[in-house]
């Protein structure tokens, strides 16, 4: 029989809104550094931003000629 206590080693902390906002801000800065215009980044969803960062070299080549 169990002791009724949860094993602390198996519990994980909850995702925090502050950390989510921090990650999103970092991802936006990464896209801006790759050459994507600020107006375009601000209109994108977070899912689209993450999808673009999967292949950064492809994004850099795509936006290099559009400046």
Record field, number of beta strands: 0
Shape: elongated
| Distance, first to last CA | 67 Å
Biggest pleated sheet: none
The amount of helix comes to: 55-70%
The assigned structural class equals mainly alpha
Spans where pLDDT lies below 50 across 5 or more residues: none
Compute the number of structural domains: 1
Mean pLDDT, to the nearest integer, reads 88
Count of DSSP-assigned helices: 4
Secondary-structure element order, as H and E? HHHH
Strand content: under 5%
Q: Rg, please?
A: 19 Å
Structure description:
- This protein is mainly α.
- It has one domain.
- The protein contains 4 helices and no strands.
- The protein has helices at residues 17-33, 38-43, 46-52, 56-64.
- The protein is elongated.
- It starts with 16 loop residues before the first helix and ends with a helix.
- The mean pLDDT is 88.
Key features?
single chain; 58% helix; elongated
List the helices and strands and how they pair.
Blueprint: H1 17-33, H2 38-43, H3 46-52, H4 56-64
Helix pairs in contact: 1-3
